[in-house]
Design a protein that fits this description.
By secondary structure, the chain is α/β, with parallel strands linked by helices. The strands form four sheets. A five-stranded parallel β-sheet has the order 3-5-2-6-9. Strands 10-11-12 form a three-stranded antiparallel β-sheet, with no helix packed on it. The longest helix is centred in the last third of the chain and has 22 residues. The chain is globular, with a radius of gyration of 20 Å. Bound molecules: adenosine-3'-5'-diphosphate. Adenosine-3'-5'-diphosphate binds next to helix 2, helix 6, helix 10 and strand 11.
């Protein structure tokens, strides 16, 4: 029965591209791809294949909502369409722009321990070793995160993006907290199912995802997933994210890590206050 009742979502004849009822606003390197792909397992969720960057890029925004809609997936009446563009979180104009499109939209924000996020961001851009990159040697992480006087370099964008409380404030100036659900990205890595169940509930979806849709793949070192029975979208079998997700991080000097943790601590406490949840990030 579950199989039959689920099947109609995928075979509905009247599917049209719809503006999103939910947007994953960021943050960069916190598991935004894993989150949207895992959510897409749900029969009532259709995702945009790529990051649309409608609200954060003025040239795209100028093209108007019809352009945006064309970049969203086709859905039936009982499905919702979602997209993720991680730079929405930190771009000043975005909260107002999204609010102007749909003031009751649901927003998902996924965060990770701020220092790990900085290292992940650095690794995405420079790789794990300091081999020459486009003919030039990569800067060392410690030279980017610290200034010559030893203070934390807030001019480095990767440092700024982890100041979650600063950016979240702009969203809370525009949206009520009940419309923003915050996901612990480290918990999503350790055990995705409870996080997704919470999202399912937040979005008002039928509870369809199950623990056994997620498998820990010890070769990859991360969870992978299998689509639900009856889902004819996408390929069958176990699906893992590609090698650009779950990269090995370079070793970082303990002194640098503790300096960064101390720097982030007051911002983290403010963030816990704003969200009403203690993420327990090391001080
Ligand atoms: P690392 O590559 O630094 O480990 P985003 O998609 O927002 O860029 O986030 C990338 C991060 O998603 C990865 O950072 C990885 O830790 C995390 N992630 C969460 N769940 C994952 C999964 N199941 N497979 C691969 N990466 C996952």
């Amino acid at each position: 029965d579950a199989l039959i009742s689920g099947a109609h979502y995928w075979t509905q004849p009247f599917k049209i591209k719809r503006l999103p009822q939910c947007i994953i606003i960021g943050a960069r390197k916190c598991g935004t791809r894993a989150l949207i792909d895992m959510l897409n397992l749900h029969p009532q969720v259709e995702k945009a294949a790529l990051e649309v960057h409608f609200f954060d890029r003025d040239d795209n925004y100028a093209k108007g909502l019809e352009w945006y809609r064309q970049h969203l997936p086709e859905c039936s009446e009982d499905q919702i369409s979602i997209e993720k563009s991680p730079s929405y979180f930190v771009t000043p104009e975005v909260p107002e722009r999204i609010h102007a499109m749909n003031s009751s939209i649901k927003l998902l924000l996924i965060v990770r321990e701020p220092v790990t996020r900085v290292i992940s961001d650095y690794t995405q851009i420079y790789g794990t070793n300091s081999k020459p990159h486009n003919g030039t040697k990569s800067p060392r992480l410690e030279d980017l995160v610290l200034q010559s006087d030893g203070s934390v370099n807030v001019h480095y964008k990767a440092i700024r993006i982890s100041l979650y409380s600063r950016y979240l404030q702009r969203w809370l100036d525009v949206f009520p907290p009940t419309q923003i659900h915050v996901i612990d990205g480290d918990a999503l890595i350790r055990d995705p199912y409870p996080q997704l169940r919470d999202v399912e509930r937040f979005l008002g979806l039928e509870p369809r995802l199950q623990r056994d849709n997620f498998y820990f793949n010890s070769t990859k070192g991360f969870y992978c997933w299998r689509k639900l029975e009856g889902d004819s979208r996408n390929e069958t079998g176990l699906h893992c994210l590609n090698d650009s997700k779950g990269r090995r991080h370079p070793p970082v000097d303990r002194y640098i890590v503790s300096k960064l943790r101390r720097f982030y601590n007051p911002h983290n406490l403010r963030f816990y206050d704003m969200v009403g949840r203690d993420f327990g990030w090391p001080e």
